[in-house]
Write a structure and sequence with these properties.
Layout lengths: L1 H28 L13 H18 L6 H15 L5 H10 L2 H41 L2 E4 L3 H9 L3 E4 L5 H9 L4 E2 L5 H7 L5 E5 L7 H13 L4 E6 L2 H14 L8 E4 L1 H12 L22 E7 L3 H13 L2 E5 L2 E5 L2 E6 L8 H13 L13 E6 L5 H9 L5 E7 L4 H13 L7 E6 L15 E4 L2 H4 L2 H4 L3 H13 L7 H7 L3 H11 L3 H13 L2 H12 L1 H8 L1 E5 L10 H5 L22 H19 L12 E5 L5 E5 L2 E2 L4 E2 L7 H14 L12 H6 L1 H11 L1 H7 L2 E5 L6
Parallel strand pairs: 1-2, 1-4, 2-3, 4-5, 5-6, 7-10, 7-12, 10-11, 12-13, 13-14
Antiparallel strand pairs: 8-9, 15-20, 16-17, 18-19
Length: about 725
């Protein structure tokens, strides 16, 4: 009988152990808490099996079994859970039936394990948080400052992340632990942070809704850099705040810290991705273009913003800068502004500094120009109306037709309202009409929203915005930094960089990526980027962002090599559409700049985009009286007289004029420098005039490397006009 009971106890103990392991494994798989107060339930079966094993052993020993003895065994069993074993009770039965050795060992192991699990259930969340926090901070992690809505969204999406809860209450600390967040509860000061960060590269992220001040965070950051901590600071800031941070705070901070501070805006990140993924040139029918990529006369491009909150505000800002078209009139290129229609029923949303800048300040700043006044950035039409009104729908209906192409961009109150209104808009038109509807969708549920060739396209998903690759390692910024490293003139350029530059364009991406794995090489890239004035950083950044617009204007698209097995087009195929008769003669024919080839159209549009950028960054046209002669020492020791046509400190630039107005600037500079009228001079024979003519040639030389630029960054070009595309 005792042998049979021993086998029964063995099977029962194994079953209990199996149930415990199974339930814990399932909790881990379903992302539930493994160490929770549910673990207390494991104590009961462990207690009972030990109790009945003691009872069986006592019966075997021949002792009197009554109610008082059974009650006293409870205490012996509890002692066992405290790791005090009653050897005098269990040894006789174990010697007679060795299976009881296995029974008792397994039962005691279950008892010990359940006790430990039960104890951990009270401290499990804190233990998990402690070990997870230390593990992340030792190897390098993202550190989000403050208990804020955005911080929690970022932490939920990115596993390699801790929240620095400097001002968090004890109750809130417990709530966050229960939600599974990893929290460092410590003061936000350099001493506390240095104590926690052992090694590795760390990114400090400060969202706007966190409980901190910019000065506080920047001060801690600069102290950490001084203390030898490898940290990067990422501050959420809008365009105006970014200017203040860069020009005031960072200029006063340690110069070595500047390359390690960057600013981001959630809404600008959404806008950047939108402009990059959905440039309007991607959808406009080719029947709208002439062969040289100018818009045909009588064709209009419209962008309608339905709702004008933070998302659409940033979208308008970027679209108005990036979407610059050219038309042709009397053999010359002319600007063809996009028409923007801003619809909202809130008076407040329809009056802002951006509209004022374009509609009023533009005229004030450029009313007394020495050179031709630049073209307007865009055409703004503000409509105060309810989106569901008959007036609004009639207006929308009138903007779509055979001779007009229209983007509708919807960002109202919530995903459901936006999606519903998008259907309303699409019902106004036939499938073949010239329009696209774009809908802001946070899409917190993670559904697949877009299908190929949908007339309604969803954008701005939070899971794509609150990511490390978006906030910290923005691919557009890195693309601009890489282009700056490859194509800017760097004195005493290191050998590794020269080796990369000397590689064929399609091999440069892999070589540069490998080289930038070295900390010193990556530091050089960031240092050279940080040395650029803010306006030049922005110019390089938005130049990179405009690549898809230019390529789609030519009928091409750019795709990451890793995302396709297609080989892409050759440079010769690219040049069939990028027509440029000037580069063969190294731009020695000045008349080339005033032709209407596709390269001229791209350069014209690029100058319009550049104008828009500088105007929106508060730059004005430099007056002739402000241009001062200065002597520049050359590398060979000679001195050259120059006439500066820009002043970054005063935010003036003489090139903020029309494309053809650059010609007047070149001739003015020639006269001031050499005292001669350049009107009838031979450009091909006059080296001095050709040097000044680079004000035109620079844009073309930049466009000439467009194919190499894209392939060197790990992309291929695809033909969007071919049947296979």
């Amino acid at each position: 009988m005792y042998l049979a009971l021993g086998i029964f106890y063995l099977l029962l103990a194994l079953a209990i152990a199996g149930v415990i392991v199974f339930t814990m494994a399932r909790a881990a798989k379903e992302r539930e808490e493994v160490l929770s107060k549910k673990n207390l339930f494991y104590l009961a079966p462990a207690f009972l099996i030990i109790y009945f094993l003691y009872l069986t052993a006592s019966a075997y020993n021949g002792g009197e079994i009554d109610i008082f003895f059974c009650f006293s065994l409870v205490n012996d069993t509890l002692d066992t859970l405290k790791f005090k074993i009653k050897k005098d009770i269990i040894l006789p039965i174990c010697k007679a039936h060795p299976i009881y050795y296995v029974d008792f060992v397994l039962a005691f192991a279950l008892g010990g394990a359940t006790v430990i699990l039960s104890v951990c259930s009270f401290f499990g969340q804190r233990l998990r948080n402690y070990f997870a926090g230390n593990r992340l901070l030792k190897k390098g992690a993202d550190i989000v400052i403050g208990d804020s809505k955005d911080a929690l969204k970022y932490a939920a999406i990115n596993g390699n992340c801790v929240i620095w809860g400097a001002k968090i209450t004890r109750r809130r600390y417990g709530e966050l632990l229960k939600e599974g967040s990893t929290i460092i509860k410590a003061p936000l000061c350099a001493k506390s942070v240095l104590r926690k960060l052992k090694k590795g590269e760390h990114n400090i992220i400060a969202f706007r809704d966190g409980s901190y001040s910019y000065t506080e965070v920047i001060s801690v950051f600069t102290e950490l850099r001084k203390g030898g901590c490898n940290v990067f600071l990422n501050l959420e800031a809008n365009q105006e705040e970014k200017k203040v941070i860069k020009e005031k705070f960072i200029s006063k901070a340690e110069a070595d810290a500047a390359p390690y501070l960057s600013c981001f805006s959630k809404y600008e990140l959404i806008a950047r991705r939108f402009v990059s993924d959905y440039p309007i040139t991607k959808f406009i029918p080719r029947t709208f273009y002439n062969e040289n990529c100018t818009l045909k006369n009588g064709k209009d491009i419209n962008v309608v913003f339905i709702g004008f909150g933070k998302v659409n505000y940033q979208l308008f800002r970027l679209c108005s800068m990036q979407f610059q078209f050219a038309a042709e009139k009397n053999g010359k290129l002319v600007s063809k502004p996009v028409r923007y229609f801003i619809c909202d029923n809130s008076e407040k949303m329809l009056h802002n500094e951006f509209f004022s800048h374009i509609e009023f300040e533009f005229d004030e700043q450029f009313k007394n120009c020495d050179f031709p006044k630049p073209e307007r950035i865009c055409d703004i039409n503000v409509i105060k109306t309810d989106a569901n009104s008959v007036k609004a729908k009639k207006k929308f209906k009138s903007l779509v037709g055979e001779n007009s192409y229209t983007y509708f961009i919807i960002s109202l109150e919530n995903d459901l309202e936006d999606a519903s209104y998008a259907r309303t808009i699409s019902r106004l038109f036939d499938d073949g009409d010239n329009f696209r509807v774009f809908v802001r969708a946070k899409n917190n549920s993670g559904e697949t929203l877009n299908n190929e060739n949908d007339a309604i396209i969803y954008f701005g998903e939070e899971k794509k915005i609150y990511t490390h690759d978006s906030v910290v390692n923005d691919d557009l910024t890195e693309l601009a930094q890489r282009l700056n490293l490859l194509y800017s003139n760097i004195s005493n350029s290191p050998q590794w960089l020269e080796a990369v530059k000397n590689r064929p364009a399609d091999e440069q991406y892999a070589c540069l990526t490998k080289a930038l794995q070295g900390a010193d090489n990556k530091r050089l890239m960031r240092k050279k980027w940080a040395e650029l004035p803010m306006i030049e950083q922005a110019s390089n950044l938005y130049h990179a962002l405009n690549l898809p617009f230019k390529l789609n204007l030519l009928g091409f698209g750019m795709v990451k090599k890793s995302q396709t097995s297609f080989a892409g087009i050759t440079e010769a195929e690219f040049d069939k559409r990028y027509v440029n008769s000037g580069r063969a003669q190294n731009y020695s024919d000045y008349s080339f700049f005033f032709k209407t080839e596709s390269s001229n159209v791209l350069a014209f549009s690029e100058h319009s985009r550049w104008n828009a950028l500088y105007i929106l960054y508060d730059y004005k046209q430099m007056k002739k009286s402000e241009m001062q002669m200065e002597n520049v020492l050359n590398a060979d020791g000679s001195v050259t007289a120059q006439l500066a046509h820009k002043n970054t400190d005063k935010k003036v630039h003489a090139c903020i004029t029309t494309y053809y107005g650059i010609d007047e600037l070149i001739k003015f500079k020639y006269f001031k420098l050499y005292g001669e009228d350049a009107t009838n001079l031979n450009y091909a024979d006059d080296e001095r005039l050709r040097a000044l003519g680079k004000l035109y040639a620079y844009d073309y030389m930049d466009l000439d490397r467009l194919y190499a630029e894209i392939t060197s960054m790990g992309y291929i070009l695809v033909d969007n006009l071919s049947p296979q595309a």
